[in-house]
Amino acid sequence: MIGYLVRRLVLLGPVLIGLSAIVFAIFTLIPGDPATVILGAYAAPERLAALRADLGLDQPPVLRYVSWLADVVSGELGQSFALRRPVADEIADRLPATVILAAAALALGTLAGVAAGVTAAVNQNGWPDRLVTLVVLVGLSTPSFFLGIVLILGLSVSLGWFPTGGMYDLFGDRGLVDLAHHLVLPAVTLATVAAAVIARFARAAMLEVLRQDSVRTARAMGLSEARVIGRHALNNALVQVIPIIALQAGFVIGGTVYVESVFQWPGLGRMLVDAIAARDVPLVQGGVLVLAAGYVGINLAADLVQMLVDPRLRPAS
């Protein structure tokens, strides 16, 4: 298993480098000038030329990318064009908010999805199964940004139960209760699609396990249905669901971009939207690099957990 882990970590570098190269190439090809965005469309040509030289935009694109890559290797992520501060510092300030939101959404989506999938499988063709199927279809069909707006209008504006946005009250105590109050709506919005996908696969995995001989044998031995489901069937079904949870972690990480924008959550997703609008290439590259590394790391952790749970999946030594 150690050899497998080393190989996956070695492959991580080329994947992240390739992704950063794609992001840089896209920003090089699309119209837009960071200097014009910063100074305005009516700035004097001399000022624009001076700012481009200061930002290094007068250099060839390949040289700019190689210079940025050298900074990454040395432990830096470059300097933000718009904020005029190190990208690493900006990401460090924004990362905790995104981690809190993504972790809460993934935990909520996993618990709700597994519970719904198991309930539907145990009650196959019954009304709980039909209800879960309907909710899954609605969840898969509803864009997260639209759901977020609906929740804001319904639960925040109309009923006043939750704040419309932000991470803390402007004049609040910034405690856990204040944070949890602001976290509910964005976490539910971000977790909805993940929960629907997990429920769909959990139901299929549970139905497959319930048809196995080991489950029929456990029932024949007189074990209660709750013990058969909880101790024998659920454990085997979760082995098949773990990779799906890891894939949904990627969706949750990517979904922070628009969910944080809708709820004005001060994380990496909102930072990326602002950086894209400002054509702030170093900030976009740094943010994408961190989010991609988190996604790859979560999938690697899921693979290791799956191998620990099911020894049959472990690579031959």
Structure, described:
With 317 residues, the protein is mainly α. It has a domain at 93-313: MetI-like (MetI-like fold, Orthogonal Bundle), CATH 1.10.3720. It is 77% helix and 0% strand. α5 packs antiparallel against α10, α8 packs across α10 and α10 packs parallel to α11 (268-277). The longest helix has 39 residues, at 225-263. The radius of gyration is 24 Å and the shape is globular. The N and C termini lie close together (8 Å).
Brief write-up:
With 317 residues, the protein is mainly alpha-helical.
Instruction: Report low-confidence residues grouped into runs of 5 or more.
Output: none
CATH topology of the domain at 93-313: MetI-like fold
Total count of strands = 0
Distance separating the two termini:
8 Å
Output the CATH class name of the domain at 93-313. Mainly Alpha
- Helix fraction by DSSP (H/I, runs of at least 4): over 70%
The assigned CATH architecture of the domain at 93-313 is: Orthogonal Bundle
Reading the helices and strands in chain order gives HHHHHHHHHHHH
Counted by DSSP, the helix tally is: 12
Instruction: Please identify which CATH superfamily of the domain at 93-313 we are dealing with.
Output: MetI-like
Overall pLDDT metric: 81
Structural class: mainly alpha
Please give the largest β-sheet: none
* Percent strand: under 5%
Oligomer designation: single chain
